[in-house]
Protein backbone atom coordinates (compact mmCIF):
# COMPACT_ATOMS: atom_id res chain seq x y z
CA UNK A 1 0.00 0.00 0.00
CA UNK A 2 2.86 2.37 0.86
CA UNK A 3 4.46 1.68 -2.51
CA UNK A 4 1.15 2.36 -4.29
CA UNK A 5 0.72 5.63 -2.42
CA UNK A 6 4.29 6.68 -3.25
CA UNK A 7 3.77 5.79 -6.92
CA UNK A 8 0.56 7.82 -7.06
CA UNK A 9 2.21 10.72 -5.26
CA UNK A 10 5.03 10.83 -7.82
CA UNK A 11 3.01 10.25 -10.99
CA UNK A 12 -0.07 12.41 -10.39
CA UNK A 13 1.83 15.75 -10.64
CA UNK A 14 3.42 14.55 -13.89
CA UNK A 15 0.06 13.54 -15.35
CA UNK A 16 -1.51 16.81 -14.18
CA UNK A 17 1.33 18.81 -15.78
CA UNK A 18 0.97 16.97 -19.10
CA UNK A 19 -2.79 17.57 -19.15
CA UNK A 20 -2.28 21.24 -18.26
CA UNK A 21 0.28 21.68 -21.06
CA UNK A 22 -2.06 19.98 -23.52
CA UNK A 23 -5.03 22.21 -22.70
CA UNK A 24 -2.84 25.32 -22.63
CA UNK A 25 -1.45 24.40 -26.03
CA UNK A 26 -4.94 23.63 -27.34
CA UNK A 27 -6.29 26.91 -25.98
CA UNK A 28 -3.46 28.92 -27.53
CA UNK A 29 -3.93 27.22 -30.88
CA UNK A 30 -7.54 28.39 -31.08
CA UNK A 31 -7.21 31.99 -29.91
CA UNK A 32 -7.53 33.29 -33.46
CA UNK A 33 -10.55 32.46 -35.55
CA UNK A 34 -10.36 31.49 -39.20
CA UNK A 35 -6.84 30.09 -39.06
CA UNK A 36 -5.51 28.37 -42.18
CA UNK A 37 -6.21 24.63 -42.56
CA UNK A 38 -3.57 22.27 -41.23
CA UNK A 39 -2.41 20.53 -38.09
CA UNK A 40 -0.22 21.52 -35.14
CA UNK A 41 0.71 17.88 -34.57
CA UNK A 42 1.72 16.78 -31.09
CA UNK A 43 1.66 19.16 -28.10
CA UNK A 44 4.93 21.10 -27.67
CA UNK A 45 6.94 19.27 -30.37
CA UNK A 46 4.29 19.83 -33.05
CA UNK A 47 5.38 18.42 -36.41
CA UNK A 48 9.06 19.10 -35.83
CA UNK A 49 10.14 15.45 -36.03
CA UNK A 50 8.49 15.02 -39.43
CA UNK A 51 10.03 18.32 -40.58
CA UNK A 52 13.50 17.20 -39.49
CA UNK A 53 13.34 13.63 -40.76
CA UNK A 54 11.67 14.27 -44.10
CA UNK A 55 12.91 16.03 -47.18
CA UNK A 56 11.48 19.54 -46.75
CA UNK A 57 9.99 19.48 -50.24
CA UNK A 58 8.12 16.25 -49.41
CA UNK A 59 7.02 17.64 -46.04
CA UNK A 60 5.44 20.64 -47.75
CA UNK A 61 3.97 18.83 -50.77
CA UNK A 62 2.25 16.23 -48.56
CA UNK A 63 0.52 18.94 -46.54
CA UNK A 64 -0.38 20.91 -49.65
CA UNK A 65 -2.23 17.83 -50.93
CA UNK A 66 -3.85 17.16 -47.55
CA UNK A 67 -4.83 20.69 -46.50
CA UNK A 68 -4.48 23.35 -49.20
CA UNK A 69 -2.30 24.08 -52.24
CA UNK A 70 -2.07 27.74 -51.24
CA UNK A 71 -1.68 27.94 -47.46
CA UNK A 72 -1.55 25.68 -44.43
CA UNK A 73 -0.56 25.88 -40.77
CA UNK A 74 1.86 23.67 -38.85
CA UNK A 75 4.04 23.78 -35.74
CA UNK A 76 7.78 23.22 -36.15
CA UNK A 77 10.94 24.22 -34.27
CA UNK A 78 8.81 25.30 -31.32
CA UNK A 79 6.82 27.86 -33.29
CA UNK A 80 3.31 28.05 -34.80
CA UNK A 81 3.90 28.48 -38.50
CA UNK A 82 2.03 29.17 -41.73
CA UNK A 83 3.39 28.02 -45.08
CA UNK A 84 2.50 30.11 -48.15
CA UNK A 85 2.78 28.02 -51.31
CA UNK A 86 3.30 28.76 -54.97
CA UNK A 87 4.38 31.86 -56.87
CA UNK A 88 1.51 33.97 -55.49
CA UNK A 89 2.51 33.17 -51.90
CA UNK A 90 6.15 33.99 -52.56
CA UNK A 91 5.17 37.24 -54.27
CA UNK A 92 2.95 38.23 -51.34
CA UNK A 93 5.78 37.77 -48.85
CA UNK A 94 8.41 39.44 -51.05
CA UNK A 95 6.21 42.47 -51.80
CA UNK A 96 5.46 42.99 -48.11
CA UNK A 97 8.98 42.59 -46.73
CA UNK A 98 9.36 44.84 -43.66
CA UNK A 99 5.77 46.08 -44.07
CA UNK A 100 4.04 42.89 -42.89
CA UNK A 101 6.96 40.47 -42.44
CA UNK A 102 10.32 40.52 -40.69
CA UNK A 103 13.22 38.13 -41.26
CA UNK A 104 13.34 35.37 -38.64
CA UNK A 105 15.89 32.68 -37.82
CA UNK A 106 15.34 29.52 -35.74
CA UNK A 107 17.20 29.22 -32.44
CA UNK A 108 19.52 26.63 -33.97
CA UNK A 109 20.73 29.14 -36.57
CA UNK A 110 21.02 31.95 -34.02
CA UNK A 111 23.19 29.82 -31.76
CA UNK A 112 25.41 28.77 -34.64
CA UNK A 113 25.85 32.17 -36.27
CA UNK A 114 25.21 34.81 -33.58
CA UNK A 115 27.86 34.27 -30.93
CA UNK A 116 27.45 37.88 -29.76
CA UNK A 117 23.84 37.29 -28.68
CA UNK A 118 23.82 36.39 -25.00
CA UNK A 119 20.18 35.28 -25.08
CA UNK A 120 18.42 32.64 -27.14
CA UNK A 121 16.14 35.25 -28.67
CA UNK A 122 15.25 34.72 -32.30
CA UNK A 123 14.42 38.40 -32.80
CA UNK A 124 15.50 39.75 -36.17
CA UNK A 125 18.49 41.99 -36.67
CA UNK A 126 17.88 45.56 -37.87
CA UNK A 127 17.38 45.56 -41.65
CA UNK A 128 20.34 47.89 -42.25
CA UNK A 129 22.64 45.52 -40.39
CA UNK A 130 21.26 42.50 -42.29
CA UNK A 131 21.88 44.14 -45.67
CA UNK A 132 25.29 45.62 -44.88
CA UNK A 133 27.12 42.92 -46.84
CA UNK A 134 24.79 42.84 -49.84
CA UNK A 135 25.12 46.61 -50.19
CA UNK A 136 28.90 46.53 -49.98
CA UNK A 137 30.22 48.61 -52.90
CA UNK A 138 31.45 46.59 -55.85
CA UNK A 139 31.58 43.11 -54.29
CA UNK A 140 28.26 41.29 -54.86
CA UNK A 141 26.62 43.48 -57.47
CA UNK A 142 26.09 42.44 -61.11
CA UNK A 143 28.97 44.55 -62.39
CA UNK A 144 31.30 42.75 -59.99
CA UNK A 145 30.31 39.38 -61.50
CA UNK A 146 31.38 40.64 -64.92
CA UNK A 147 34.84 41.37 -63.51
CA UNK A 148 35.04 38.00 -61.75
CA UNK A 149 34.48 35.80 -64.82
CA UNK A 150 38.11 35.51 -65.91
CA UNK A 151 39.34 34.77 -62.40
CA UNK A 152 36.53 32.25 -61.89
CA UNK A 153 37.49 30.52 -65.13
CA UNK A 154 41.08 30.17 -63.92
CA UNK A 155 40.01 28.84 -60.49
CA UNK A 156 37.61 26.29 -62.00
CA UNK A 157 40.28 25.10 -64.46
CA UNK A 158 42.79 24.60 -61.62
CA UNK A 159 40.16 22.78 -59.56
CA UNK A 160 39.31 20.42 -62.43
CA UNK A 161 42.98 19.62 -63.02
CA UNK A 162 43.56 18.97 -59.31
CA UNK A 163 40.47 16.95 -58.36
CA UNK A 164 38.72 15.65 -61.50
CA UNK A 165 41.19 15.13 -64.35
CA UNK A 166 42.32 11.51 -64.75
CA UNK A 167 40.18 10.21 -61.86
CA UNK A 168 38.17 7.01 -62.34
CA UNK A 169 35.76 8.00 -59.58
CA UNK A 170 34.89 11.36 -58.03
CA UNK A 171 32.56 12.43 -55.22
CA UNK A 172 30.64 15.13 -57.07
CA UNK A 173 28.93 16.70 -54.04
CA UNK A 174 32.04 16.98 -51.87
CA UNK A 175 34.10 18.35 -54.76
CA UNK A 176 31.31 20.79 -55.61
CA UNK A 177 31.49 22.02 -52.01
CA UNK A 178 35.24 22.53 -52.31
CA UNK A 179 34.87 24.34 -55.65
CA UNK A 180 32.12 26.66 -54.42
CA UNK A 181 34.01 27.49 -51.24
CA UNK A 182 37.25 28.02 -53.20
CA UNK A 183 35.45 30.68 -55.25
CA UNK A 184 33.75 32.19 -52.18
CA UNK A 185 37.02 32.26 -50.22
CA UNK A 186 38.80 34.05 -53.04
CA UNK A 187 36.20 36.76 -53.57
CA UNK A 188 34.86 37.15 -50.02
CA UNK A 189 38.01 36.55 -47.98
CA UNK A 190 40.94 36.93 -50.36
CA UNK A 191 41.98 33.39 -49.40
CA UNK A 192 43.68 30.95 -51.79
CA UNK A 193 45.17 28.40 -49.37
CA UNK A 194 43.60 25.04 -50.34
CA UNK A 195 44.37 23.40 -46.99
CA UNK A 196 42.50 26.14 -45.13
CA UNK A 197 39.66 26.05 -47.66
CA UNK A 198 39.28 22.28 -47.15
CA UNK A 199 39.20 22.81 -43.39
CA UNK A 200 36.48 25.46 -43.72
CA UNK A 201 34.54 23.17 -46.09
CA UNK A 202 34.52 20.32 -43.56
CA UNK A 203 33.42 22.65 -40.74
CA UNK A 204 30.60 24.18 -42.78
CA UNK A 205 29.43 20.74 -43.87
CA UNK A 206 28.90 19.76 -40.21
CA UNK A 207 27.11 23.04 -39.49
CA UNK A 208 24.70 22.68 -42.42
CA UNK A 209 23.24 19.53 -40.85
CA UNK A 210 22.03 21.53 -37.84
CA UNK A 211 20.36 24.58 -39.36
CA UNK A 212 16.77 23.39 -38.88
CA UNK A 213 16.83 21.04 -35.92
CA UNK A 214 16.06 21.19 -32.20
CA UNK A 215 19.18 22.81 -30.64
CA UNK A 216 20.07 20.09 -28.12
CA UNK A 217 23.71 20.81 -27.30
CA UNK A 218 24.61 17.46 -25.77
CA UNK A 219 27.63 15.25 -26.65
CA UNK A 220 26.79 12.87 -29.45
CA UNK A 221 24.02 15.00 -31.00
CA UNK A 222 24.16 16.58 -34.43
CA UNK A 223 23.77 20.04 -32.91
CA UNK A 224 26.65 19.46 -30.48
CA UNK A 225 28.95 18.56 -33.38
CA UNK A 226 27.70 21.56 -35.33
CA UNK A 227 28.37 23.93 -32.42
CA UNK A 228 31.92 22.63 -32.08
CA UNK A 229 32.40 23.12 -35.82
CA UNK A 230 30.96 26.66 -35.56
CA UNK A 231 33.37 27.55 -32.75
CA UNK A 232 36.32 26.18 -34.76
CA UNK A 233 35.22 28.08 -37.86
CA UNK A 234 34.80 31.28 -35.87
CA UNK A 235 38.38 30.99 -34.60
CA UNK A 236 39.60 30.37 -38.16
CA UNK A 237 37.80 33.49 -39.40
CA UNK A 238 39.16 35.53 -36.47
CA UNK A 239 42.67 34.48 -37.52
CA UNK A 240 41.91 35.71 -41.05
CA UNK A 241 40.64 38.99 -39.59
CA UNK A 242 43.92 39.52 -37.74
CA UNK A 243 45.85 38.80 -40.96
CA UNK A 244 43.70 41.27 -42.91
CA UNK A 245 44.13 43.97 -40.25
CA UNK A 246 47.90 43.62 -40.48
CA UNK A 247 47.72 43.91 -44.27
CA UNK A 248 45.47 46.98 -44.05
CA UNK A 249 47.88 48.62 -41.61
CA UNK A 250 50.60 47.94 -44.18
CA UNK A 251 48.74 50.03 -46.74
CA UNK A 252 46.86 47.31 -48.64
CA UNK A 253 43.53 48.57 -50.01
CA UNK A 254 40.33 46.64 -49.08
CA UNK A 255 39.74 44.24 -51.98
CA UNK A 256 37.23 41.79 -50.52
CA UNK A 257 34.18 41.74 -48.26
CA UNK A 258 36.11 40.72 -45.15
CA UNK A 259 38.39 43.76 -45.46
CA UNK A 260 35.36 45.96 -46.14
CA UNK A 261 33.62 44.81 -42.93
CA UNK A 262 36.78 45.48 -40.94
CA UNK A 263 37.16 49.09 -42.10
CA UNK A 264 33.46 50.05 -42.30
CA UNK A 265 31.17 51.00 -39.44
CA UNK A 266 27.89 49.33 -38.53
CA UNK A 267 25.05 51.20 -40.32
CA UNK A 268 22.93 51.24 -37.14
CA UNK A 269 25.42 51.93 -34.31
CA UNK A 270 27.91 53.90 -36.39
CA UNK A 271 30.75 52.06 -34.64
CA UNK A 272 33.36 49.62 -35.90
CA UNK A 273 32.27 46.02 -35.37
CA UNK A 274 34.19 43.80 -32.90
CA UNK A 275 36.05 40.86 -34.39
CA UNK A 276 33.53 38.27 -33.23
CA UNK A 277 30.67 40.20 -34.88
CA UNK A 278 32.59 40.43 -38.17
CA UNK A 279 33.36 36.71 -37.86
CA UNK A 280 29.67 35.88 -37.40
CA UNK A 281 28.71 37.92 -40.46
CA UNK A 282 31.38 36.22 -42.58
CA UNK A 283 30.25 32.79 -41.36
CA UNK A 284 26.68 33.58 -42.40
CA UNK A 285 27.91 34.77 -45.79
CA UNK A 286 29.98 31.63 -46.34
CA UNK A 287 27.05 29.41 -45.32
CA UNK A 288 24.78 31.15 -47.83
CA UNK A 289 27.37 30.78 -50.58
CA UNK A 290 28.16 27.18 -49.67
CA UNK A 291 25.17 24.88 -49.40
CA UNK A 292 22.78 25.82 -52.20
CA UNK A 293 25.34 26.37 -55.02
CA UNK A 294 27.17 23.14 -54.14
CA UNK A 295 23.95 21.14 -54.15
CA UNK A 296 22.86 22.60 -57.50
CA UNK A 297 26.28 21.93 -59.04
CA UNK A 298 26.26 18.32 -57.86
CA UNK A 299 22.75 17.72 -59.22
CA UNK A 300 23.72 19.21 -62.59
CA UNK A 301 26.49 16.60 -62.78
CA UNK A 302 24.04 13.87 -61.75
CA UNK A 303 21.37 14.75 -64.29
CA UNK A 304 23.88 15.20 -67.12
CA UNK A 305 25.21 11.71 -66.38
CA UNK A 306 21.66 10.33 -66.52
CA UNK A 307 20.80 12.17 -69.75
CA UNK A 308 23.65 11.68 -72.25
CA UNK A 309 21.57 13.37 -74.97
CA UNK A 310 21.39 16.57 -72.92
CA UNK A 311 25.04 16.21 -71.91
CA UNK A 312 26.06 16.02 -75.60
CA UNK A 313 24.20 19.27 -76.36
CA UNK A 314 25.84 21.03 -73.41
CA UNK A 315 29.25 19.74 -74.49
CA UNK A 316 28.63 20.86 -78.08
CA UNK A 317 27.74 24.38 -76.94
CA UNK A 318 30.79 24.57 -74.68
CA UNK A 319 33.16 23.26 -77.36
CA UNK A 320 31.84 25.79 -79.88
CA UNK A 321 32.71 28.59 -77.46
CA UNK A 322 36.08 27.01 -76.65
CA UNK A 323 36.97 26.76 -80.36
CA UNK A 324 36.53 30.54 -80.71
CA UNK A 325 39.11 31.22 -77.99
CA UNK A 326 42.87 31.45 -78.41
CA UNK A 327 45.08 29.00 -76.54
CA UNK A 328 45.11 29.96 -72.85
CA UNK A 329 42.54 32.72 -73.34
CA UNK A 330 40.08 32.91 -70.43
CA UNK A 331 36.32 33.12 -70.67
CA UNK A 332 34.71 36.54 -70.52
CA UNK A 333 31.21 37.88 -69.91
CA UNK A 334 30.35 37.78 -73.64
CA UNK A 335 31.16 34.05 -73.68
CA UNK A 336 28.83 33.49 -70.75
CA UNK A 337 26.00 35.15 -72.68
CA UNK A 338 26.38 32.53 -75.42
CA UNK A 339 25.76 29.60 -73.04
CA UNK A 340 21.98 29.70 -73.45
CA UNK A 341 21.35 25.95 -73.58
CA UNK A 342 23.72 25.30 -70.66
CA UNK A 343 21.96 27.99 -68.63
CA UNK A 344 18.54 26.50 -69.40
CA UNK A 345 19.81 23.11 -68.20
CA UNK A 346 20.91 24.71 -64.91
CA UNK A 347 17.51 26.40 -64.55
CA UNK A 348 15.71 23.10 -65.15
CA UNK A 349 17.83 21.39 -62.49
CA UNK A 350 16.94 24.14 -60.02
CA UNK A 351 13.27 23.73 -60.93
CA UNK A 352 13.42 19.98 -60.28
CA UNK A 353 15.57 20.28 -57.15
CA UNK A 354 15.12 23.76 -55.66
CA UNK A 355 18.40 24.69 -53.96
CA UNK A 356 16.61 26.68 -51.24
CA UNK A 357 13.48 25.20 -49.69
CA UNK A 358 12.05 28.45 -48.43
CA UNK A 359 13.07 30.94 -45.75
CA UNK A 360 11.43 32.05 -42.51
CA UNK A 361 9.61 35.28 -41.77
CA UNK A 362 7.63 36.58 -38.79
CA UNK A 363 4.27 38.33 -39.06
CA UNK A 364 4.51 41.91 -37.72
CA UNK A 365 0.76 42.12 -37.29
CA UNK A 366 -2.38 40.07 -37.95
CA UNK A 367 -2.43 39.37 -41.68
CA UNK A 368 -5.26 38.22 -43.93
CA UNK A 369 -4.27 36.00 -46.86
CA UNK A 370 -6.59 33.90 -49.02
CA UNK A 371 -9.38 34.59 -46.53
CA UNK A 372 -7.41 33.21 -43.56
CA UNK A 373 -5.82 34.99 -40.59
CA UNK A 374 -2.08 34.76 -39.92
CA UNK A 375 -1.73 35.94 -36.29
CA UNK A 376 0.90 38.43 -35.23
CA UNK A 377 4.11 36.71 -34.13
CA UNK A 378 3.50 33.54 -36.11
CA UNK A 379 6.27 32.39 -38.38
CA UNK A 380 5.79 32.22 -42.14
Describe the protein.
The protein is mainly alpha-helical. It is built from 15 helices and 6 strands. The strands form 3 sheets. A two-stranded antiparallel sheet has the order 1-2. A two-stranded antiparallel sheet has the order 3-4. β5 and β6 form a beta hairpin. The longest helix has 32 residues. The N terminus is likely disordered.
Average of the residue pLDDT scores: 82
- Sequence stretches where pLDDT stays below 50 over 5 or more residues: 1-31
Instruction: Report on the biggest sheet.
Output: 2 strands, antiparallel
Q: Sum up the overall morphology in one term.
A: globular
How many DSSP E strands? 6
Strand order of the largest sheet: 1-2
What fraction strand?
5-15%
Question: In angstroms, what separates the terminal alpha carbons?
Answer: 53 Å
Which sequence of SSEs, written as H and E, runs from N to C? HHHEEHEHHHHHHHHHHHEEE
Helix content: 55-70%
Category from helices, strands and their pairing: mainly alpha
Supply the number of helical segments.
15
> What value does the Rg take, in angstroms?
25 Å
User: What is the multimeric organization of the chains shown?
Assistant: single chain
Please sum up the structure shown.
The protein has 380 residues and is mainly α. The chain has 15 helices and six strands.
